Amino acid sequence: MTKITTRVLFYWLTVQMILAAGLLFSSAMAADCSYRGDLDDRYCDENRDMVADTPTDPKELKNPGTLVFSYTPVEDPAVYKDAFADFQKYLSDKTGKKVIYYSVHSNSAQVEAMRSGRLHIAGFSTGPTGYAVNLAGYVPIAVKGTEKEFQGYNLIVLVKADSPYKTMDDLKGKVVAHTSVSSNSGNLAPRALFPKIGITPDEDYKVVYSGKHDQSVMGVLSGDYDAAPVASDVYERMVEAGRVKAKDFRTIYTSARFPTSAFGYAYDLDPELVAKIKAAFASYRFPPEMQETFGGADRFYPINYKDDWQVVRDIAFATGTAYSKNGLQQLAEKEAADAAKKRQAESAGAKAQ
Predict the structure, then answer these.
(1) Calpha distance 353→336 (Å, rounded)
(2) Fewer CB under 10 Å: which end of the chain, C or N?
(3) Contacts of 110 (CB under 8 A, 6+ apart)
(4) For the chain, what is the domain count?
(5) Residue 98 shares a structural domain with residue 129
């Protein structure tokens, strides 16, 4: 037998062993779990609450010396690193762990960070929360709020105040900026809700992706886009911070209210650590500067993913969004393409100046 033939045979046998091991592992997982629902194969949902169960094998539990925290990249990540600095210190005191902030620049990257075990606690934007739950073992427990209720937001459609556009029907044939493919208010909700009022994205107007809500707002202001559906809370924070002036915009559509970003933890953290994390979220009160940043919210309000995210999942279903591996891959590819286009546009603009 030649060296090449031996090498090929060895490779073939190795591949077959790996595949066989994978099948055995999958079979073992299937035997150990009677129900997963929409969760990825690595997770189980025996209690059918739609989030991953805590591993039953103690060897699978994690109790890291340093906890990694991140917040959704809806705007400039540096802004939120500062905004959550006090909470990180509080979380560190309550858990006895060092807590560091991890800046992410895309929703898909944040999901992958938790799925790979590099991220332990996070605030995911409303739309991508479903990806995080199904694919990364994310367990949402709270949103920003007050003593009485959780903080919500509306999908609003902005146009320039001096534009001729007064109704949604006026946007037919125009260029409208959606934020990113996974965004609830910036893309999914418009695609589910707008056809009901007689205007369909990609058919009645041209959709371009800005990447983020604040970039959509600034694009409308500069005239790059005729209009943009954005989250009302992001727009309001931009106005309050003086980044834009309310008088420069007109709102021509306002939706029903949605929950804001979800906060939670990775499913495989040690239960004793999880108890401390939950206690920290429940007892923490926002300092004045944090309340100002987050529109008057003064605490983390407890939520239930199965119930409180139902409206978001319904919109995702209506728009054909799949919280699956393929869906996440498509999201990552789209975000990368949008980022490349944005860099090209900025480079062209810089050269023109």
Answers:
(1) 26
(2) C
(3) 70, 72, 73, 104, 119, 122, 124, 128, 132
(4) 3
(5) yes
C-alpha closest to that of 266 among 32, 28, 55 = 55
* Token output for 328: 């996440």
Scanning the structure block, which residue is given the tokens 């805590």? Answer: 54
Token pair for 120: 């332990």
Q: Residues 297, 250: one domain?
A: no
- How far is Cα 137 from Cα 269, in angstroms, rounded to an integer? 10
* Centroid of chain to Cα 29: 28
Block mean pLDDT (10 aa), the chain, length 353 = 44 42 42 89 96 97 97 75 94 98 91 97 94 97 95 94 98 97 90 95 97 96 98 93 97 91 97 98 97 92 94 86 84 77 68 61
| Cα(231)–Cα(183) distance, integer angstroms | 9
CB count, 10 Å around CB of 149?
Answer: 10
Q: Are 126 and 260 in contact (CB under 8 A)?
A: yes
Q: Percentage helix, strand, coil, to 5, in the chain?
A: 50, 20, 35
Q: Token pair for residue 300?
A: 């983390």
| Predicted model pTM | 0.71
User: Is 155:189 a contact under the CB 8 Å cutoff?
Assistant: yes
Token representation of residue 30: 């299937």
Q: What is the pLDDT of residue 293?
A: 87
Residues in the chain: 353
**Residue 341: strand, helix, or coil:** helix
Same domain, 167 and 202: yes
Distance CA 321, CA 173 (A): 25
H/E element holding 118?
none
340 assigned to some structural domain = no
Q: Quick one: pLDDT at residue 212?
A: 93
Same domain? 139 vs 69: yes
Contacts of 95 (CB under 8 A, 6+ apart): 67, 273, 276, 277, 280
Task: Examine the domain organization and report whether 163 and 245 are in the same domain.
Answer: yes
pLDDT value, residue 348: 66
Decide: helix, strand or coil at residue 148. coil
What domain range includes position 6?
1-32
CA distance 179 to 230: 7
Residues 274 and 131: beta-carbon distance below 8 Å: no
H helices, E strands: number in the chain: 13, 11
